[in-house]
């Protein structure tokens, strides 16, 4: 299922380029394109771990906020929030983060260093991207 929102050029703040296209490819990816030609494919896992909302499933390890075990998380829906962003609902029931167009641009521009930093943080704390095994009864 693909949802595409392309109503008009949407102004961003802070000198970021304008969003020209947002496509929701449930459950695994969103695609965002900006008027400077930048096109980013952002995975559900990446968006979940960099959600702008505080979440009770974040572990504090040595004073550092770390989300682990989200490799296979999916997105269930994308809901427009005004003309400035989107609320993504994930299948782990996380739904409080609003991703502004500026923030999506930031995540797109910095995808590789942010993901590398995330993986290094997990390794440093002995955590993994994989979900924990099911509990035995």
TrEMBL record:
- What Pfam families does the record tag this protein with? GBBH-like_N
Q: Which UniProt keywords apply?
A: Iron, Metal-binding
Q: Decide whether keyword Iron is in the record.
A: yes
Q: Which InterPro entries match?
A: GBBH-like_N, GBBH-like_N_sf
- GO MF term set: metal ion binding
Q: Which residues form the Gamma-butyrobetaine hydroxylase-like N-terminal domain?
A: 28-105
Q: Does the keyword Calcium apply?
A: no
Q: What name does this protein carry?
A: Gamma-butyrobetaine hydroxylase-like N-terminal domain-containing protein
Q: Which organism is it from?
A: Cuscuta australis
Highest classification ranks of the organism: Eukaryota, Viridiplantae, Streptophyta, Embryophyta, Tracheophyta
